[in-house]
Amino acid sequence: MERSHAHIRPRVGPAGHGAAHYPALSPATPTRAVAGIALAVLLLAGCGRDDVRPTPRAAAAVPTRDWPVVTPDDPASANAVLMRAISLVGTPYRYGGNTPEGGFDCSGLVNYVFRDMLALNLPRTSRDLAAYQGPRIEPRKLATGDLVFFGSGSQVSHVGIYVGEGRFVHAPSSGGTVRLDHLDGSYWRQHYSGAKRVLR
């Protein structure tokens, strides 16, 4: 039986702990020592806990795939999630954050959208969200409202909300705000680890 994580307040790390962990929009790059520590921490916890990652090296361009339009099983709920997620683009990133006023980390954003629009309480970390009940979805069968996950190997470290046409809304620490990205972006395609449907 799935435990509710809604009452758990994530531990907030020290100042600056949520520094760039996804494709950076600024030239700042952590030192090797900091990057090594960040990677070790990442392997122990998903987004919403120790939410850090060294800035990846630039990768070659990846061809864009065709993204079929898949009708959600519950179009009204999926549309509510879509509209709310899009409305939060530009909200500041904050490690451990789970409100528009206080900012969001990746799983805090997911939790807020589904709880606010559908009164659905989901697990708090990206790793627990990936293990949550519901079918895993192939990329070509993604529908609005599905959760998309990213990581390295078997370790899930990031989550976003799919909104259609290969795009997803998420809260990466780099750039400082909730934003819209494409699954065919070189970094996201390389680190994609699957998707799950929680709307049924």
What order do the helices and strands come in, and which of them pair?
Layout: H1 32-42, H2 75-87, E1 98-99, E2 103-104, H3 106-118, H4 126-131, E3 147-152, E4 155-164, E5 167-170, E6 179-182, H5 186-191, E7 192-196
Antiparallel strand pairs: 1-2, 3-4, 3-7, 4-5, 5-6
Helix pairs in contact: 2-3
Characterize this entry briefly.
The protein has 200 residues and is α+β, with helices and mostly antiparallel strands. The protein has five helices and seven strands, in the order ααββααββββαβ. It starts with 31 loop residues before the first helix and ends with a strand.
Residue-averaged pLDDT: 78
Largest sheet report: 5 strands, antiparallel
> Which architecture name does CATH use?
Alpha-Beta Complex
Number of helices, where a helix is a run of at least 4 consecutive DSSP H or I residues: 5
Helix and strand sequence: HHEEHHEEEEHE
Strand order, main sheet: write it out: 6-5-4-3-7
Percent of residues in helices? 10-25%
**Cα distance spanning the termini:** 18 Å
What's the alpha carbon Rg, rounded to whole Å?
16 Å
**How many distinct domains?**
1
Report the sheet-strand fraction.
15-25%
- The best one-word shape is globular
CATH homologous superfamily name? endopeptidase domain like (from Nostoc punctiforme)
Class by SSE composition: alpha+beta
